[in-house]
Amino acid sequence: MRRFGLFAVVIGALALAACVPTKAPTPQLVTVPFECTGGSQTLTVPGGVTTVYVNAFGGQGGDGPPALFGAGVGGAGGLGGHAAGGLPVAPGETLQVNVGCAGEDGGALGSGAGDGGFGGAAGDASGGDAGSDSSGGGGGASDVRRATTVLVQAGAGGGGAHASADDATGGAGGKGGGTTGTAGSAGTSTGAPCMPGQPGTQSFRGAGGGASTGCTAASAGLLSRGGNGSVENTGGGGGGGGHFGGGGGAGGATNGLVHVGAGGGGGSGFVAPGVLAPVLQSGVRSGNGVVLVSYFV
Fold this sequence. Notes:
Elements: H1 2-19, E1 29-35, E2 41-44, E3 51-57, E4 80-88, E5 94-98, E6 142-146, E7 149-154, E8 215-216, E9 251-252, E10 254-255, E11 257-258, E12 270-271, E13 276-285, E14 290-296
Antiparallel strand pairs: 1-14, 2-5, 3-4, 3-14, 4-13, 5-6, 6-7, 7-12, 8-9, 10-11
């Protein structure tokens, strides 16, 4: 009888344990960073994941050169923007990730123009190249795409411009990102200032800095790509990449009066319809861009 009673107690305890619900494991947040590589990268959505959250940051525009060899101070490159949001996804699908690189800084006098930073798929959202003589290139935009469709894109900053005289200052690049980037700035010198590049918006590319006395017109931005700064003695900065690219800054000549180059405009950011909790900010990222993709497992 005692054995039978012990057996009954064990069976009862097992039955009671079966009725107690098992505590589900706490979901763990995973964040995958993607850095500037000069090419496209991919993310395969893990099993069981139906939403990923993207934080994308565009590249900064290149700086104009420091005060060297009798030249003035170059303008600073504009900071890159931030774009974020939640993407509904299917387990196993592949997303394309493109991380914008910073524009190349201008160097010493005679070192040549700074190249625009890589951005977008096959470079289609890269920054514009600077004009001649040491100005900075525009930064490249960062984005996440489903096939060829851009879902989240962070605009990039415009490049800073060169100043060829010791009492002059080159124009600064405009900030990238937000619904509209910001325009570059004109430099300061003994001559009339050259015109800066204008920002990209949600609907239009940024205009290039126009021609004026002693200054040569620059290229407008393109759909996603920044415009090139104009080629002159003191070239303009390149425009930043983005949803619509910023325009390049006009460049100036040294003809008795010094007309220093102007900064490039910043590229705009973008978040596609249907993206959850969208965020667009301008001018928050220095250096190369980065893309952070987060999800719970």
